[in-house]
Amino acid sequence: MVEVKIYSEYIKLGQMLKFASIISSGADAKIFLEENTVYVNSVLEQRRGRKLYPGDIVSFEGETFKVVKWL
Question: Coil, strand or helix: which one is 54?
């Protein structure tokens, strides 16, 4: 499991994908979510604007990411 550290209250799914170097730009998030099965906390998610809070788990294609608060 890879930890994605955030400094704010939340991060949007599209931003998290870019921050974790999964996509190269925020515009790629829509295409990525259309072409891949992405789960947030074990629930299928296709909205790039989905807010992720510390403790949320994002998984796809055998990879798992956990959002954590970084002070």
Answer: coil
In this predicted model, what pLDDT tens digit does every residue of 8-31 receive, in sequence order? 999 999 999 998 889 998 789 999
Q: What are phi and psi of 46, to 5 degrees?
A: -125, 5
Question: What stretches of 1-71 adopt beta strand conformation (E)?
Answer: 2-6, 11-12, 39-40, 43-44, 51-52, 57-60, 63-69
CB 2 within 8 A of CB 62: no
What's this model's pTM, rounded to 2 decimal places?
0.89
The pLDDT, as a whole number, for residue 44 is: 96
d(Cα 62, Cα 39) in Å, to the nearest integer? 11
CA 53 – CA 50 distance, rounded (Å): 10
